[in-house]
Amino acid sequence: MKRRTLRALIAIACCAFCGALPLRAQETTPFSEGLELPGIANYAPANVSAGALAEGPAVDLFLDAKLAEDGNLVAKGLIWRIFGSDTGPDGKLPLLATAEGGSTRLQLSPGSYLVHAAFGRAGATTRITLQRNEPRHETMVLNAGGLRLEGVLPDNIPMREDKLSFDIYDAQEQEDGERRLILPDVRPGRTVRLNAGTYHVVSNYGDVNATIRADIRVEAGKTTTAKVEHRAAQVTLNLVRGENGFPLADTAWSILGPSGDIIAENVGAFPTMILAAGDYTVLAKNKNRVFQRDITIRPGRDIVVKVDTETAEQIAQ
Question: Which residues form the signal peptide (predicted)?
């Protein structure tokens, strides 16, 4: 039996993002989860700790952010964090102030601070120094974009999206050969916010062997839509006694690959799973009897496989 080679079809569609325009389609903006984009970026309320105002009169700090150097201001979805520049007794920088929304205004004592802006999984950090009686306006460029992941089957056959998920990894391998997991179990159609760069995406259709891997690049200020083509199908297994027999309960199933290795196992009268296209051998065990049948999975062609105890090959144990 020959295994069919899986392939990934990555269709990259980049579209410019304008943070000040209303949200019209997920494909054209890194914002997700129903975020609204008002025309005016209001200043978000800030939460400032007492330590940030311990010395001297407060100085205004105005903060806003862009996804790209030539982009518009991000109007919503930012998380701002202000840290002191000196480590505390625990060896960590103290968190002095936070704010959420778009642009924000903080009042801090003169001194040096680290400002971190987070936008989903994207973020940037800068160091600032506030002088007495000198308000400061800081615009941070996040160098970030959006990634929208979708799955397709050949010939425009509808996909079972509830069986599809994506894991996003760093593109660079670590010393142990593994990649750092950035975001697991991303559902199809969701747009995630990421720093610009290349990411390694693993697409899983079902939980057996229908897996596609691809490296995808995210550009600053744009959304990249990646469509991953899976060559797989869903199979439902029945062990029956006679052509019109009812599926037998308490049946143990094993799916073997061409080399005889076990691909999947299950127990029940109606087990269902998604398999990559290719040839397999199905083993059904019921009451100390084992039956087998060879099957072929074709891309996008869901099937019900009936193993008939009266006609299937029985294996001696």
Answer: 1-25
Contacts of 91 (CB under 8 A, 6+ apart): none
pLDDT in tens, 61-71: 999 999 999 99
For the domain that residue 54 is a member of, what is the CATH number? 2.60.40.2190
- At CA 115, angle to CA 53 and CA 30, rounded to 5? 135
Query: Looking at the structure, do residues 174 and 149 belong to the same domain, yes or no?
Result: yes
Cα atoms in the 13 Å half-sphere on the side-chain side of 209: 20
Q: Could you tell me how far CA 158 lies from the centroid of its own chain?
A: 21
Kindly report the pTM of this predicted structure: 0.77
Query: pLDDT by residue (tens digit) across 133-170?
Result: 999 999 999 999 999 999 999 998 889 999 999 999 99
Phi-psi map region of 287: left, alpha, beta (phi>0 left; psi -120 to 50 alpha): left
Q: Which amino acid belongs to residue 312?
A: A
Q: Is 118 in a helix, a strand, or coil?
A: strand
Q: Does any domain span residue 67?
A: yes
What pairs with residue 23 in β-bridges?
none
Say if residue 225 is in the same domain as residue 238.
Answer: no
- Asked which of 187, 205, 229 is the last residue of a domain, the reply is 229
Position 41 pLDDT exceeds 60: no
